[in-house]
Amino acid sequence: MLTYRSDRLILKRLLVLWPIVGLGVGFLFSFGTTYQLLKDESLSLGQVALILPWSLPFLAPYLLPIAYLIAVALVYARLVAEGEALAFGSLGIPARSLAWPAVLLGALQVFPLAWASATLVPYAQQQRKATMSHDFQQLFELGAGEHFSRKFKGQGFSIYVRRYRGARFEGVVLHTHGLRRGGHALRLQLTARAGRLGAEAGNERLVLELEDAVATYLPVGEPPVRAHLARYVQAFALGGRRRVKEFERSSTELRARAQGADEAGRIEAEVALGRRTTLSLAPLLLTLLALPLPFCLRLENALLSFGLTTATALALFLGPTVVADFLARASGVGALAYTGIPASLLGAGLLGLLARRRT
Fold first, then answer.
1. C-alpha angle with apex 305: 303 to 310, nearest 5 degrees?
2. C-alpha distances in angstroms, 125 versus 130, 153, 196, 306?
3. Would the pLDDT of 2 be above 60?
4. So where are the chain's domains?
5. What is the pTM of this model?
6. What is the pLDDT of residues 86-125, one digit of tens each?
7. What are phi and psi of 148, to 5 degrees?
8. HSE value, Cβ hemisphere, 13 Å, CA-based, for 158
9. Whole-number Cα distances in Å, 281 to 64, 106, 147, 312
10. Secondary element (H or E) of residue 206
11. CB 203 within 8 A of CB 133
12. Whole-angstrom Cα distance, residue 338 to residue 344?
């Protein structure tokens, strides 16, 4: 009976605190995403308003585990700091029995997150990219006119056209910016008598073909270098240099790619599947890592205990995950991407033994 009441108390606290923390973390994630879209992708407020709803599902595999970790750390840090755990122990309720409500809630999140990572996130990413493609599409819908200029910060270039008719340009000036090669900034200016726009790979890449062009390379601290080119072709990827292809594919597509792609594609697909599985298990793994820490620390300051618990659990989860990802890519063995999961479980087991000895 006492165990049932303690479980209800802890479960109630988690269910009250978790949505509040989730809303706070979600607001921070949304604010950061909005700022990134406005600053780095050079989108208008209207475009951001259309893209943001598709960005939130993309953030769910990260937002939910972090919000739940914070809620668990807050509840159990307070439980230990205020002596409630000690009081339960004096009534014959061991510390490990107090962990079941948090473990149960963490486990219940695994399957929804696995479904979201496998289907919802790729779909949302595809819709997000389709909305962002408006910037590229407007270049094909200019009609006829003079003096058009546009900066594509995410793709690393800006363009000025003196006269245009559809996808054909006259008097083109192209500047690249933000590109780097060999650790040095790469600044290139192209002026051309005429140019033509095209698209490839399902409108994912903008192809600009220039005729009778003069290329001026501007190295830092050195005289400019110029060259005349009869023809110059430059391709720009939608989404810029930070585009991540794996999020656009469902888990079924990644498994098919792991079977049929070349060696590099196979490794990328297997690593992506391993990372996706690890993220799906993140609520449970982070909970198992966080639960023993307040009992190990036994601090009277609940806020300090919460901070140390959250930071330590994240470090013990992210560390093995990053190392597993690196080992899988370096060795070419995609199965190593899953080794972060048993490493986190091992860390949780060791922390549990330490907490048991201290209680």
1. 95
2. 9, 20, 29, 34
3. no
4. 2-133+245-358, 135-237
5. 0.74
6. 888 777 777 788 889 999 999 999 999 988 888 888 888 7
7. -110, 135
8. 11
9. 11, 9, 53, 18
10. strand 205-217
11. yes
12. 11
